[in-house]
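Working notes for the structural subgroup meeting. M.R. asked for a predicted model of this chain before we commit to crystallization trials. I am recording the input and output together here so anyone reviewing the notebook later can reproduce the run.

Input as submitted:
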Amino acid sequence: MDLKQDKAHSARMYDFYLGGKTNYAVDREAAREVMKVFPAIGTVAKVNRAYMHRATRYLAQQGVRQFIDVGTGIPTAPNLHDVVQAVEPEARVVYADNDPIVLVYADELLAGTREGRTSYVHADATQPAQVLDAVRNEEILDLTQPVGLSLHALLHFVPDDLEPYRIVKDFMDQLPSGSYLSISHCTGDFDPEAWQAITNTYIQRGTPVQVRGQDEVERFFDGLDLVDPGVVLAHEWQPEAGSGPAALTDRLVSLYAGVARKP
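Returned structure, recorded in token form:
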């Protein structure tokens, strides 16, 4: 299995931003290059995790009992299943990623409650039909019933030439009424020069990145009913006490997020 240890990897860089240990010197070098131009990148990562916890907890509280998390990344506790099964122990979660480094650590995604079920599938996020076929084959979820689909910190790694809006639409078209979509997405709206430098750092190391503005992120939810407060900076989405770092500013967060329901 090729873990691509010879070049920086976005999942391992993200792990480093979060203070994790599943990263190599090449990842730390690239991450520190990003930190030179945007020292708050660790804050962005932590705000993203806090948003994921709130959004998925909200969906579980709305009665969603099935979840698909696409672009899972390296496991970081609490994982999505930990959050939703704390609300509903019988909740079922399937994680999907095409990254071999995630496969190595997938066992950490399978330790859910006795009442619930968790699974991991190796599939490419840019191929919705492939992902959903792999999910069906696990026979854990009933895709005729509502699903919570998470695309967290994923779509900024899908540039326009890979048709990200089509990808999201294809996912939602195959899910039933009452399903939800949750997205978080980096933006350069508040510091364009720094985020252009971040983008260049990733691209130079072989990872395509395209940050987007608020209107562009809102477009991912076309045809869906946005949950209040709509598409906002992630720390402003239904905030809870202690849900993220203190003294946050729009520039430090630089991450839009939103949840919407399929009518």
